[in-house]
Specification:
The complex is a heterotrimer of chains A (210), B (430) and C (287). Chain A is α+β, with helices and mostly antiparallel strands and 210 residues long. Chain A folds into two domains: 66 residues; 135 residues, Rieske [2Fe-2S] iron-sulphur domain (Rieske Iron-sulfur Protein, 3-layer Sandwich), CATH 2.102.10.10. Chain A has six helices and nine strands; from the N terminus they run H-H-H-H-E-E-E-H-H-E-E-E-E-E-E. In chain A, helix 2 crosses helix 3. Chain A is elongated. Chain B has a two-stranded antiparallel ribbon. In chain B, strands 3-4 form a two-stranded antiparallel ribbon. The model of chain B has no long low-confidence stretch (mean pLDDT 95). By secondary structure, chain C is mainly α. Among the domains of chain C are: 121 residues, Cytochrome c-like domain (Cytochrome Bc1 Complex, Chain D, domain 2); 35 residues. In chain C, a hairpin with a 6-residue loop joins strand 1 and strand 2. Chain C starts with a helix and ends in a 5-residue tail after the last helix. The chains are: A alpha+beta (210), B mainly alpha (430), C mainly alpha (287). Chains in contact: A-B, A-C, B-C. Chains A and C meet through helix 2, helix 3 and helix 4 of A and helix 9 of C.
């Protein structure tokens, strides 16, 4: 804008005063104001308005350019998946996939539930009861991510025959984290219990995760 | 290099001074497109199209880069990845249609820009280098657009690639091995698709580099103008900023209105329905047609129907197919020689009545006819028209212009730009 | 030197073109192109209009739902629609449960594997699935259709000149070739006795080469029962399915048009401001 003043304002005054009213008039008002200061302000206004509009336009165009990076509709459609858990016997667990991550769905035996409830919650690194980590009426279903909260390896213990660690739950072979029957961290470097994703039982045997 | 009365860049703030001493980029911008670059005051709207071409390139690069985040260059997955962009990617339909129609608008703008150059003699001394760089940019654009059109792997993508790469087999001896080298195989397939994707991503940046040279070469003599008369004094010019930044802003608004109207309301008008059919190497479409901006050259290619040989002996020296290929490339390559074919010392067509006649009644109609016929099937009437129009096209640049530029009597030129515009002569040199 | 070479090159190319011109004209006179049966009897697309036509056009969701019913009950037996997912039907106005039901109840199941044995198997669809193809692959499709491949319909209205109007015209375009006359009263089999429709194909003058492998898919009224009570005449079914196929080809059409108006409105104001800015700056300079 200062450049505008320099080249126009510094030039011939009379010609400017006469001509600058004509194009400026349709912009703001029909008032016949020929002082240079007033004309300069009107001139600046139109330029500021134009450049601002262009700026708004550029921002409006930037929005789709950025939003195209967020998850597309087909990825979002995979955000929640339904699983039929009828075939999982008590004491069994399955390893499945949700949002491209491993998920452990375990059917706890009454012994495993009792062992989990006997633990003093206050002594846990990440204090949570089994009830905190399951749904009411379905305390035998333990659904957690199969991702160790230390550095992300997939712990052992879900498939039959795999090492379950000292606390009868899961064991991460990478750095030796032991999880108990409620998948809570008991020993080893992991800071948190295995993450429980958002889930809901749609029926007795069908659970929707995510 | 600029004119002696150009405003000097005088950094005011501490930061501006600090930067200027270490990397004089703001100074460069000031001298190139700011108040430090004097430009003839009488430029008409045909001079807007250079900047618009730059804007079109930026649109293509930006939309292209984000499209490349979702495109999958596989013969099995490419078509579906483009449909994934159209249906599932947020605003994907907008990005794809903008890129598709952006290419067409890039060519519209560049063609008008070239025609400005042809009419106003912008290719004449001392601006020959700008012209040579410009023709180079045009060739790079054509290569980029051709490879880009192959990427969706529709019927026209595949068969267009088949036809264009087939040209190389017309070259005697080395043609077929060359074609297989370019394709990485015997027909357009995975190897070709992958390399076209790689090169299509690369070329626009090569184009950007050549554009920098093109603008640099322009800034040595400065812009020409509709009278073709060189700048003689300060009164002849205005600083680029704010005069032409404002005019280019307005021109940009008009361009964007047209671009938006087509992209949002008629996005498939300039395309071909067959490219919405996945490529099938076993089924040729009824009519293989390139995109509209290639049609005149396609018409020239198809117009050569007679072999060149020794009459009555059946000996063929140059078969028609090869002649077509040579003529098609030749029709663009001859542009490189234009500054030395058209030797008139008068630049602007305004003051060259004979040149103007051939331009408006000869060149333009022949190009319109070639564009129209290029998209038509090989029925007699279209072949005849193509042959007449193509014959004129070559004659215009290679025979007519050299002769006209020698024999014509131009109109009297104005003494200066200022005189042409205000009727009053330039004030005496300060 | 340049001019000399240019002159010779120009003479060569222009000369060869003019020779070619002569040759073309002479051949056209000596061996004129024979009239083809397509040129004489191919019908232009009918001038039918749709709710979504024009820059202000919007889809009629009731019509799209009817069209989906026609597609699923008449066309889906042979024609795949691989680019559309069941979840996309939510845009037609269906609720999440209705979409789940559509996916689960779709006549073709989604390919999967038997989790016990690993053998190929199928399972009912879920909303995230794309519509499963009626045939396992192209070979199976051709085997079931007299060696003709029923094209995928996801993009058919964008892949044909004339779009939905062409599809509509084609669906209603089946005619009896015996005695068929065009507008000028010329009878096809009399003008072109060799152009009889081969066995296995069907005469349809709206198809490019007049004989199409698909039998008339909507030969009679009431092939489907519409949920909204509309009478399912042949023309109604053809119109509804053509509108539906326009949606499958471009589900984002309405977004596109409304974004277009917003962009145009913005640009109009910007251009006016830019013009006024330009005139203000140039006010003092004659040019």
């Amino acid at each position: 804008m200062s450049t505008v003043k320099k080249t126009n304002g510094a030039g011939k005054k009379p010609a400017k005063a006469a001509s600058k009213v004509k194009p400026a008039a349709p912009v703001v008002s029909a008032a016949q104001d020929t002082t240079e200061g007033e004309g300069v302000r009107r001139r600046d206004f139109i330029h500021i308005a134009t450049v601002s509009f262009a700026g708004v336009g550029a921002a409006a165009v930037a929005m789709p350019l950025v939003s195209q990076m967020s998850a597309s509709a087909d990825v979002l459609a995979q955000a929640s998946v339904e699983f039929d858990v009828a075939a999982i016997e008590p004491g069994q667990a399955i390893k499945t996939s949700w949002r491209k991550q491993p998920v452990f769905i375990r059917n706890l035996t009454p012994a495993e539930i009792e062992a989990a409830n006997k633990v003093d919650v206050g002594s846990l690194r990440d204090p949570q009861t089994l009830a905190d980590r399951t749904k009411p009426g379905k305390e035998n279903w333990l659904i957690t991510l199969g991702v160790c909260t230390h550095l992300g390896c997939v712990p052992l213990g879900a498939a039959s025959g795999e090492v379950k660690g000292e606390f009868g739950g899961y064991f991460c072979p990478c750095h030796g984290s032991h999880y108990d029957t409620a998948a809570r961290i008991r020993k080893g470097p992991a800071p948190l219990n295995l993450n429980v994703p958002e889930y809901a039982f749609l029926s007795d045997t069908v659970v929707k995760i995510g | 290099m600029s004119f002696p009365w150009a405003q000097e860049y005088k950094p005011q703030g501490t930061v501006s001074k600090w930067v200027d001493e270490r990397l004089p980029l703001p100074r460069l911008v000031y001298n190139a497109v700011g108040a430090g670059y004097p430009v003839p005051r009488n430029l008409n709207y045909f001079w807007n199209f250079g900047v618009l071409a730059g804007v079109a390139l930026v649109i293509q690069i930006v939309t292209g880069i984000v499209l490349a985040m979702h495109y999958y260059a596989s013969v099995d997955g490419a078509f579906n990845s483009v449909e994934h962009i159209m249906r599932d990617v947020n605003a994907g339909w907008f990005l794809r249609y903008a890129h598709m129609n952006g290419a067409s608008f890039f060519f519209i703008v560049v063609y008008i820009h070239i025609f400005r150059g042809l009419f106003y003699g912008s290719y004449k001394a001392p601006r020959e280098m700008i012209w040579l760089l410009g023709v180079t940019i045009f060739l790079l654009m054509m290569a980029t657009a051709f490879m880009g059109y192959v990427l969706p792997w529709g019927q026209m993508s595949f068969w267009g690639a088949q036809v264009i790469t087939g040209f190389f087999s017309a070259i005697p001896l080395v043609g077929e091995p060359l074609r297989q080298l370019l394709l990485g195989g015997f027909a357009p397939d995975q190897a070709a698709l992958n390399r076209f994707f790689s090169l299509h991503y690369l070329m626009p940046f090569v184009i950007a580099g050549v554009i920098i040279l093109h603008v640099w070469a322009l800034h040595i003599p400065g812009s020409s103008n509709p009278t073709g008369v060189s700048v003689k004094g300060e009164q002849d010019t205005v600083p680029f900023h704010p005069y032409y930044t404002a005019k280019d802003g307005f021109g940009l608004g008009i361009f964007l209105i047209l671009f938006v109207a087509v992209t949002f309301f008629a996005p498939n008008m300039l395309g071909h329905p067959d490219n919405y059919i996945p490529a099938n190497p076993l089924s040729t479409p009824a009519h293989i047609v390139p995109e509209w901006y290639f049609l005149p050259f396609y018409a020239i290619l198809k117009a050569f129907t007679v072999d060149f040989g020794i009459p009555f002996t059946g000996i063929i020296i140059i078969p028609a197919k090869l002649m077509g290929v040579l003529a098609m490339f030749g029709s663009i390559l001859l542009l490189f020689f234009l500054p030395w074919l058209d030797t008139s010392p008068v630049r602007s067509g305004h003051y060259r009545p004979l040149f103007r006649k051939f331009f408006w009644y000869g060149l333009i109609p022949s190009l319109v006819v070639l564009t129209y016929c290029g998209g038509k099937p090989p029925y007699t009437q279209w072949v005849v028209l193509s042959q007449i129009a193509a014959a004129y096209y070559f004659a215009h640049f290679l025979i007519i212009l050299p002769i006209v530029s020698r024999i014509e009597r131009p109109l009297a030129l104005p003494n200066s730009i200022t005189e042409a515009v205000t009727g009053k002569p330039l004030p005496a040199a300060a | 030197m340049v001019r000399l070479i240019a002159f010779l090159v120009g003479l060569f190319f222009s000369g060869m073109l003019l020779l070619g011109l002569g040759d073309t004209v002479v051949s056209a006179i000596k061996e004129p192109a024979l009239p083809t049966v397509e040129a004489g009897f191919h019908e232009e697309t009918l001038p039918v209009t749709f709710a979504h036509d024009g820059p202000l056009g919007k889809f009629d969701r009731g019509q799209l739902q009817r069209g989906l019913k026609v597609y699923s009950e008449v066309c889906a037996a042979c024609h795949s629609m691989k680019l559309v997912a069941f979840r996309d039907f939510a845009a037609l106005g269906y609720s999440e449960d209705q979409v789940k039901a559509l996916a689960k109840g779709w006549k073709t199941e989604v390919p999967s594997i038997n989790p016990e044995t690993g053998e190929p198997a199928t399972r009912p669809g879920i909303p995230a699935d794309k519509i499963p193809s009626p045939f396992a692959n192209e070979t199976a499709a051709r085997a079931a259709n007299n060696n003709a491949l029923p094209p995928d319909l996801s993009l058919i209205t964008k892949a044909r000149e004339g779009g939905p109007a062409y599809v509509y015209s084609l669906l209603l375009g089946y005619r009896d070739q015996a005695g068929y006359k065009n507008e000028e009263g010329k009878e096809l089999l009399k003008e072109f006795p060799d152009a009889a429709t081969p066995t296995g194909l069907h005469f349809n003058p709206w198809f490019a080469n007049l004989n199409i492998a698909m039998a008339n898919p909507i030969a009679s009224d009431d092939l489907v029962t519409y949920d909204d009570g509309t009478k399912a005449t042949r023309a109604q079914m053809a119109k509804d399915v053509s509108a539906f196929l326009t949606w499958t080809a471009e589900p984002k059409m309405e977004n596109r048009k409304s974004a277009g108006w917003a962009a145009l409105g913005f640009l109009l104001i910007f251009t006016i401001l830019a013009f006024m800015s330009y005139r203000t700056i140039w006010a003092d300079k004659k040019h």
